[in-house]
Write the structure tokens for this entry.
Amino acid sequence: MSVSIASHFDGGAIEVISAVSSANVRLRIASDSRSTVRQWFYFRVSGVRGELLTLSLDNAGDCTYTAGWSDYKVVASYDGENWFRVPTQFDGRALRVRLEAKFDHIYFAYFEPYSEVRRAKFLGTLQTLPGVCVRDLCRSINGKPISLVRVSDGQRTSKKKLWFIARQHSGEAMAEWFVEGLLQRLTRQGCWEGDPIARDLLSRADILVVPNMNPDGSALGNLRMNAAGIDLNRQWSDPNAISSPEVLYVREEIMSTGCDAFFDVHGDEALPYVFAAGTETVSGSDQDRAREQETFVNHLKNATSEFQNEFGYATNKHEKDNLQLAARFIGHHFGCLAMTLEMPFKDNANCPDERTGWNGARSRALGAAMLQALYWQLCQR
Ligand code: ZN
């Protein structure tokens, strides 16, 4: 049986060097659109049932975040729904994966993908629920909708406005899983039916969520960039309609709606932890905001054991980018709590799961736990 590799689907990206036998499939990780950034991969290998499949991603050592490959395991799935981690080695140059294939074809990805079809179904369901409004703020460069979900109990208009944006960096699919979990709890779907936290939180605040800031990059299989090769999280002080419309129109909506707390949800390639980066290095950030942030971080730690604040970025990591970053810009403009939330591509070293690593379900659970922390922040002062 001959081996074949396919990546011409939503989020797919890989380059094939050679695939003559399942014992020696050699691939290259592709670069983002109009960019030298490279890290994301997602492809299907077929014709391998019962064979010991050996894949080599030959240029892993030339990728943007090589620290992302140490202690990293590729994710795989036979059905595109259930993903598991596969033994993976990195020798400084290539990333090698070995797996005995149980079925004819198998998907491999950098992280459990979140598809455009899933987004469409989820937003379609949300719009039918009481208190939920889903509308498109603008179109991406390639014409995909940038949707805003607003959840409110409709009681009065002077409530606080809490914002979440996800997936500015398109390959950070965990961010979209996170907001799915947050929105499911907020709208009391499934196991969250009757959840008093969501009800009480909505009595104090409207919650506004942009589940995917960069649908072009997500569809194209980019790790970070949009279709124009632009890093959206470096555009917030000066976005434009040609190369960063996604930021321009979302920022406009935030400006006109107002903002009392802002969370920009991401994934980190290297660090095996869930952590937050705040606004502490922005000039003018005052003591009240620092205290508010510290209180919130403690609430989030109490809400879920997945979150910690021992490991994270050095506080000056993004100093040179300053107000180009979403959380920095919004925190500075509104003088509000504004944070970048990071989840791992690898696993959470504080509570590792050999089978799944960090995945969509854990990201969803973290999103749901976030509401508990916000509840404590707003409702129990
Ligand atoms: Zn990111």
